[in-house]
Amino acid sequence: MLKRENEAELLSNHLAGYLGALFGVEFGLYLSSEACFSGMEIAVIEEQFSPEESKVANLLKVIDLELSAERFDNARKYCLLLFSLLEDVSQNKKAGKYLCRRPHRLSVLYRTLMQLGDFLFDHGLPKEALIFYRELLKDNPLDPLLIKKSGRACYTMGPSYLNEAELLYRQALKQNPKDLDIYESLGRIMENFPEREKEVFLLYRDALRYCLTDMDKIRFYLRLLILEPDDSQLLLRLGRLYRRMGMFIEARKYLEDAFRLDKDFWTALDLSYIYYLLNDLVRAEETLNLSLLEDSPDAAHSRIFFLGLIKESSEQWSQAEKYYRIVTPDHSLFWKAQIGLARVLLHQGKFIEAEELSAGIPAQQRISFRSDFMKLCELMDDSTEERYRGGKWRECICLTDSQYELRKDIGRRSMGESFWRKYEAVEAGWNVSGGQIILARERASGKKVVIKQISKDLLSDPLVVRRILGLLRTVRAMSNPGIAALFEDCYYDDCFFYAMEYMSGGNLTELISSRAPLTVTRAAGIVLQITAALDYIYREKGAMLYGALKPENILFSDHDAVKISDIDLLWALEGNAVYSSSVLQMRRSFLENYLYAAPERFNRRGFLSGRMNAQSRNSTLEMSLQGVDHRADLYSLGLIFFELVTGILPFRERSLRAVVSFHRSGKMTSPRLFNPAVPPDLEEIILKLMHIDPHQRYYVPAEVKVAIEKARIL
């Protein structure tokens, strides 16, 4: 097939990997833009086509021409003809020369036809795309992905299709009541009917029950705010959520709007606190004075406490002391005021009194107000005279928190509160193992970045936070075009964020779900770029285990440049490269990590032969002790390679039980069973990468590159 400009926009190129799996490697390369043949070579290839292959190739030529000429009605007719032809081929055991096993053949056909619909939808033809989705739904009526795609197509087609779109999304929601994307899509459909505003409001409120992160809650509160823009309570909740995450600038905006609508004292208190955190002390005090003070002791003492905070930040020590001393023991902020009073006494040079006051704060209160107490302890470290060092207060610290020094070190290494002054969150992206991705940008330059928030429930141990910081520092020091850059990190009020380079081309998970099986040339090209990054890590970092190689961590630029990203968060949590049975039970949410992990990472003892061989190669200490080294990354690479050329993993299902069972069996699954278009040389490379014994794999990433180049598949 002669190639034209905008190859990526041709349907033939879009379906090359799928049809290559059905008809053979030559047919896939014939359709693909990755391989360029001369006119004579094309003629020879076409002569070897079976009748079915010739029909498919000719139909694709015609469809590409009709689409490029914007004759969409004709394109739709020919696409339907292609649909029927491919269904006939799937039923004919003798059709084609390289047809794979029937169960997988049907799976490839299903994904081919779905991609045909997706291609039409992406080119502004939702009505034509819906035809294919409906055809597939006949045989797969409960497929949630198909239902959502059909609903999306209906929604795009205009008002007359909104009812059908709603029915489809409600069907999808019934299958997965926790899918937040469905709630948002369904709400957007219903927003087109003003009389259903109350129903939409209740739908978004219902979605809040399934929000696992503050960013997801913010997402739906913002939707609610569109419906009720003057609801002061919604504005107040948004402000508090942003403040809890350390996003003070966003919190200020919503709290100011809430205070404008309702000068309630407690709203004023929240807004005043934000001004205090942003060091706008004049406005903080003015806001307290402007509020309608409630006639209650609780409100009065809360106001007095915040005035103490403001005076302390203004270095008006005597006034701050006066306010802190007024707060009575029966008030919820009493112990926080006592911690503040101790800080003020230190600044006034009253070291003995400050020390005695600190020692008298109960252990439970030190834990409840840990960040405030930590600031007091650090202040004592910096300001207490030498003769008071090692006194009562330090004994109290050790009894209360044996990891004080570790927490102090974490605070000094992290960017802290200033992180969100540099970055601005744009929207919640998607949930990943151990956290959530947030799309953001730099406030000053507008440059896009990706921010990962680590789940709070993983951060209770400061040693874990310290290991995360260490991994981030290690990756940050790497300078290679194949490794995504890591920027600043933030540890604030038990929340942890870190910023990463934004890659606009998506990740490998999306590519696999939408395009795999890929042509062998495209798959090998991706693997070569990953190999180059792994080779850099091996050479520069002394055979260090990267440990986080999985499709969601492999990113693309607009021009298909590949970068690996992120860190091995599971190692940071456990401090061990091997997954014990207790880890597998406790960390079930890290399924994506387990699916692509090497067998030796599931064995407490490691592999003895691998350990002995590693020691003979001047391995790292961790490798020799645990039997896990950089070759575990090569196994992960082999699994990814397998998935790229077949569209599936070599397990029966994507579950922890399936992957552990696969490793225990020790069986080698040939990719050619699922895609006969995979050349034998490439199959040999994949199987060697996936060998159960580490020292039977390639030893260094550079060997993989040499093997792929010798296979002559590019």
Concise synopsis of the structure shown:
The chain has 714 residues and is α+β, with helices and mostly antiparallel strands. It contains 38 helices and seven strands.
Your description of this structure?
The longest helix has 21 residues, at 102-122. The protein has 38 helices and seven strands. Residues 1-8 and 604-625 have low confidence and may be disordered. Among the domains are: 7-207, Tetratricopeptide repeat domain (Serine Threonine Protein Phosphatase 5, Tetratricopeptide repeat); 416-501, Phosphorylase Kinase, domain 1 (2-Layer Sandwich), CATH 3.30.200; 508-711, Transferase(Phosphotransferase) domain 1 (Transferase(Phosphotransferase), domain 1), CATH 1.10.510. 60% of the residues lie in helices and 6% in strands. The chain is globular, with a radius of gyration of 30 Å. The strands form two sheets. It has a five-stranded antiparallel sheet. A two-stranded antiparallel ribbon has the order 6-7. The relative contact order is 0.06. Helix 2 (16-23) runs antiparallel to helix 7 (102-122) and helix 18 packs antiparallel against helix 19 (317-326). By secondary structure, it is of the alpha+beta class.
